[in-house]
Amino acid sequence: MTEENKTTAGLDFIRQIVAADLAAGKYDGKIVTRFPPEPNGYLHIGHAKAICLDFGVARENNGVCHLRMDDTNPTKEDTEYVDSIAEDIHWLGYDYGPEIFYASDYFQQMYECAVELIRRGKAYVCDLSAEEWEKYRGDSTTPGTNPPGRSRTPEENLALFERMKNGEFDDGAMVLRAAIDMQSPNIHMRDPVIYRIRRAEHFRQGNKWCIYPMYDFAHCLEDAIEGVTHSFCTLEFEIHRPLYDWVLEAIDFPHRPHQYEFSRLQLSYTVMSKRKLLQLVRENHVRGWDDPRMPTICGLRRRGVPPAAIRAFSDALGVTKINSVTDMGVLERCIREELNRTAPRRMAVMKPLKVVLTNYPEDQVEYLDAVNNPEDPAAGSRQIPFSRELWIEATDFMAEPPKGYYRLAPGREVRLRYGYFIRCEEAVYDDQGNVVELRCTYDPETRGGNAPDGRKVKGTIHWLSAAAATPVEVRLYDRLFSVEQPGSGDVDFLEELNPDSLKITTALVEDAIVQMQPGECCQFERQGYFCCDPDSTPEQRVFNCTVTLKDSWSKVCQKENKK
Ligand code: ATP
Ligand code: MG
């Protein structure tokens, strides 16, 4: 193994290319990447994968990554989206430096490049209608033929293009085409459109332009103008790469960036197309772009997903050229691992059942030491009140426990987390036969959770002192869609929405939870991770379930598969 192989082993194919370029002394050892979102929607978890790659490669190689708004399509873009994109990138932990780049700032340069192509006889104005063009273009099995506009002289084309720019023709009346190869097996190389007429107000350029460059012409120029060295995009652009290279070659652009393609992230049980996400928001199927069920970065943030979990997820995915659908469970595992390290433990009861400790003094309150995070000694501990009346989880009691159930049952003893052993002496029922209260005794010798006589209990349950329990709103989320790949079959993706993706309930919680600020996360012990929602008011605190503790979903799936 050579020295170089040793250092690049274990890197994904893109990082290997970058390492090899650096080793070969290309680009004077300076790496410039870019993340080029079109500001026509909010970023989603797929973009996060691209961001981690674009910014990650730059950071690892002491390079820079430009945040560039790919704003060459005047109709759907807006500053609202620019602001959200910038915020999301910072939140993910990446720095794009002092300025945001805009493709629209290069419109003049792009125009001049188009003029240069015409001068060199490599672009021409074409006034064929769409139907007429199809006859010349051919298809995947038939080569195309040169359209009539191709025989115009550069002077004629220059004059026509100038008039296009000056607004003398209607929208769609003419386009500028690159004169490449009508016989090319790659249909994108059969004289693609590089400029079109479009009278629409641009959110930054106003009405300055009525002609706009097409993506394939614009993108390589944007990269070249900015001195980008490595331009990463998703696999569907692989077939456009010859055009990317052709444009820069045709005008002899002094700097040559290179495009590399990787497979896009697809996640099960959600959609990622901006058009579909926009539709979910506009038609109120969700509460907004930042609805915690959305795969958007702001939705994940509101749900309580830490940025480190998204970066870890991106690492776990790796960078390849293989298209596949990633199970949502992979993301959830990354979230759990991160929150397990960082989230303080708190006690909350979702389905309360009253416990009365018949041998505990009526008006007494004592304070017990509760560890904040067993994974993080620096998190310390807090004091929680303990008294005669408690709440426990209704599911932690069974009148007739099956084998393997170690929680409370008549005559059974369990440990209260951070507290004492208690024994269930009697269950009190209402007229319908539902348990409404448990009468228990506590063992004063077991404070701290151990019996001096060495007797053991198998179950430890969470609880709250009834006098110190506050109700809060809890939002529980399930998959937004009930099928793995929404919209992939014959039905509209909207019909595959999961009607039970949001359940709103009430939980009783300890004071430390009531005190949490929007955006803060904690673990509700034995249940899951929860994040305080910005909808919270001083009177009504609201919590989003970020992820449950156990992967209940994959179990359900396994069962389904077995069936
Ligand atoms: P649309 O949904 O309209 O196709 P888009 O998702 O391609 O839009 P862009 O704003 O063009 O959105 O994307 C910016 C960058 O993010 C591009 O470089 C694109 O390749 C990358 N990207 C978009 N979606 C994914 C994805 N699912 N996985 C990885 N990268 C992605
Ligand atoms: Mg795109």
**Which molecules are bound in this entry?**
adenosine-5'-triphosphate, magnesium ion
**Rg, alpha carbons:** 31 Å
The CATH fourth-level homologous superfamily of the domain at 13-262: HUPs
Q: What's the number of extended β-strand segments?
A: 27
CATH fold annotation of the domain at 13-262: Rossmann fold
Query: Any low-confidence stretches, pLDDT <50, length ≥5?
Result: 1-6
Largest sheet: 7 strands, mixed
From the coordinates shown, what is the CATH architecture of the domain at 13-262? Answer: 3-Layer(aba) Sandwich
Gross morphology is elongated
Tally the helices: what do you get? 15
Helix/strand-derived category reads alpha/beta
Q: What is the CA-CA span between the terminal residues?
A: 49 Å
* Amount of beta strand: 15-25%
Please estimate the helix content: 25-40%
* Strand order, largest beta sheet: 12-25-26-27-23-24-13
The CATH class of the domain at 13-262 is Alpha Beta
Integer average pLDDT = 95
